[in-house]
Specification:
The protein is of the alpha+beta class. It is about 40% helix and about 25% strand. It has a single domain (about 5-190), classed as Lambda Exonuclease, Chain A (Alpha-Beta Complex), CATH 3.90.320.
């Protein structure tokens, strides 16, 4: 049995005491995303909203959210999530699951696994704008989820905003291969250090 840990303070995963990269770190380290030219204060502000939106949606899905005093911005994002759930009759089966891949030695946290139209669906919750790289991210999460012969039929990103929600389905089967290529690049760069 492997010892899999997540250090919240350092925001890092370890497997048997060795730091392993996360899905988002792999994508960034491989050069598929770059926030160097984005204002740091704006980036921090958006990241803070993203964390709070994730917490609010998680608590709502678990039935433990006390909505009293919820900031109006968060409330509108949450309303979008609630509307998505109703519109698609989405029932979460797993919520905020941290996993590691035993073969490829990476980790990540899948936002939701649930059912849409009898299809097991991986759902990634976003509070920012659409980026092409999100397809690669859900491809990495699919690899994590399906390593034990589990299957998913759909990968969907749900973009929450103060105006509601939008979805984007990720259908390209090459997304997983691109993710694995990014993992190879990340591991190569780590060896060079």
């Amino acid at each position: 049995m492997s010892d899999f840990q997540f250090n919240e303070e350092k925001h890092e995963y370890t497997l048997d005491g060795i730091v392993i990269p996360s899905v988002t770190q792999i994508i960034q380290d491989a050069g598929l995303t770059n926030f160097d030219n984005v204002n740091k204060e704006l980036l921090d502000y958006k990241a803070n909203i993203g964390r709070k939106v994730h917490t609010a949606t998680e608590l709502w899905d678990r039935g433990t959210l006390d909505g009293e005093g919820l900031h109006p911005i968060l409330k509108r994002h949450l309303d979008g999530w609630i509307k998505f759930n109703k519109d698609f009759n989405f029932e979460p089966i797993k919520i905020e699951i941290r996993l590691f891949h035993a073969t490829y030695r990476f980790a990540g946290r899948i936002d939701r696994i649930g059912m849409i139209d009898k299809d097991e669906t991986l759902v990634e919750i976003k509070s920012g704008g659409k980026q092409k790289v999100h397809e690669i991210q859900t491809g990495g999460y699919e690899l994590l989820w399906c390593q034990d012969k589990k299957k998913i039929k759909r990968r969907i990103a749900v973009y929450l905003s103060e105006d509601g929600y939008k979805i984007e389905e990720h259908k390209n089967p090459n997304d997983k291969n691109i993710f694995l290529s990014a993992l190879t690049i990340t591991n190569y760069k780590k060896e060079l250090k």
